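Late entry, zinc ion complex.
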Amino acid sequence: MTLILGLESSCDETAAALVTADRAIRAHQLAGQEADHRPFGGVVPEIAARAHVEALTPLVEAALAEAGVSLADVDAIAATAGPGLIGGVMVGLVTGKALALAAGKPLIAVNHLEGHALSPRLADPDLAFPYLLLLVSGGHCQLLLVEGVGQYRRLATTIDDAAGEAFDKTAKLLGLGFPGGPAVEKAALAGDPKAVPLPRPLVGSGEPHFSFAGLKSAVLRARDSGLYKAEDIAASFQQAVVDCLIDRTRRQLANVEASALVVAGGVAANKAVRGALEALAADHGLRFVAPPQWLCTDNAAMIAWAGAERYKAGLFDDLDAPARARWPLDPNAEK
Ligand code: KG4
Ligand code: ZN
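Prediction complete; structure with ligand written out below:
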């Protein structure tokens, strides 16, 4: 069975994984860098790149040991080649190229967003193309029609902040700590989602896109008013994000032929987001697919899986494949 080694280093997780074409996750190794970045309240690119350099090779060795295989048993090496923090992307891609060259294996340069986009198919063997994907991460908030491997049509994107970025900024404003998404979700459990009146930017709009910057400003005003508890602001903010995501996704469901509604990316780990999307899919008589939480946030199993899908499609890359800070999944979409 085809065995792919995946490497991920585009943001603040260093990861290596071994996944087979029949969806067996033979190894899954991950080192987070939260403690390194916490004093700064966000990811510091230079610190991230250095940490990837130190962590990646030991993680590759640990992954091979976990699976009980050697590099010679691997059929191809898939490494994230962007988009992301360029220093980190270069560490993973150069490591992947070196391993490919040394072991005489093909290289697959994976778009990190494709890793997220195809991860639901690793989790669910029955998920068929085309599907409507809400991709919500720290850097992106997009609706995509996933028509096949390498075939993505972007239907909507954010005109300002990404959904995860809004969670992270809200956590910072409320002093809830880093990383922000899980901290806001936890605080929201103890709050009232109706306590604070917050805007729902672009909800009901005729255009397809998302916007979260106005929501962040409203959170700042609510905090500075001194009228509300942090938990209530967190719960109200989370509800506003959910309402925006649902409204924009519902709008697209009317336009596309899809086999399922799918969510992926770090924000897909959020239970309120997952629950609301599941209800939306049920309303439309559609299947709902969300990867398990560990597969939503950055990891290398999704990169290895995207590698397995590309391997099957005969999509390989040369050793001069570039590292890219920006790399849209849909070549017709400019951002
Ligand atoms: O996909 P991901 O791990 O990295 C990127 O590719 O960006 O997504 C990270 C983002 C961060 O903004 C983080 O705050 C958010 O996902 N996130 C969450 C949750 N877990 C992670 N947002 C809301 N609720 C969560 N439970
Ligand atoms: Zn990601």
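The two ends are 37 Å apart (CA to CA). Will revisit in the morning.
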